[in-house]
Every structure is written in structure tokens, then in C-alpha cells.
Amino acid sequence: MYCKNCGKEVDEKAVVCPHCGVQLKELKVENSNRDDYGVDTGSIGWGFLGFFFPIVGLILFLIWKDIKPKTAKMAGKGALISVIVEFVVGIVFGILTSVGIISTAWLLS
Ligand SMILES: [Zn+2]
């Protein structure tokens, strides 16, 4: 590989060009895509985590929305679906309970 700044041949593993001291771009790009938590894969696993632990999903979304947008979106989506499902289940249970109370009251009267 060749240095993009001075054009001289440099070792592929070199972080800095030994001829002009410029940091080699390839490594810079690779570093910006990585962080302490790993690569931004947007894995479905984070969606499931967000679904089962919506608060964790929301926190992860807020932490990662800038550094790991794909993964953040997955965790956030899981949390959102979880909240919607719980909301719908809550309404259905509420209706069923009301129907149950009304029909019981009607049967007893
Ligand atoms: Zn150079």
C-alpha cells in the first residue's frame, strides 16, 4: 500500500506513514465505525432486548443514537413495539374485565 499524502510505499499494518508522519486514512475510518461495544450491526437481538426490557431499550437508544444508529434503532424499535403491545393488551384486558363485571352483574340480577 502507498501513502496518500507523500505517495511512498508503506507497510500495510502501519498506523502512521514513516516518511511524512501522516495518519493513514484506512485505519481512521475503521476506528470511527468501532467503539467499546463493538460494531454497529443492527442485530435483531437488540430488538428482542428492547422488547423484553423496554426501559433498557430506551436507554440504549439514547446512548447509541449517534455512535451506533442501526443498533440504537433496533433497540428503540423493540422498546416501542413492547410499549404498543402492552398498551393494546391493557385495553383488551380492560374491556374483557368490564364485560366480565357487566355480564356477572347482569346474571346476578
Ligand atoms: Zn507519507
Describe the structure.
The protein has 109 residues and is mainly α. The protein folds into two domains: 1-32, no CATH class; 40-108. It is built from four helices and two strands. Strand 1 (34-35) and strand 2 form a beta hairpin.
Helical content band? 55-70%
Low-confidence segments, given as residue ranges, are none
Percentage of β-strand residues: under 5%
Rounded to an integer in angstroms, the radius of gyration calculated over CA atoms is: 27 Å
The domain count comes to: 2
Mean pLDDT across every amino acid position: 88
The 3D shape can be described as rod-shaped
Strand/helix succession: HEEHHH
Bound molecules: zinc ion
Distance between the termini: 89 Å
Structure classification:
mainly alpha
Task: Please tally the helical runs, counting DSSP H or I stretches of 4 or more residues.
Answer: 4
Topology:
Layout: H1 25-32, E1 34-35, E2 38-39, H2 44-52, H3 54-64, H4 69-108
Antiparallel strand pairs: 1-2
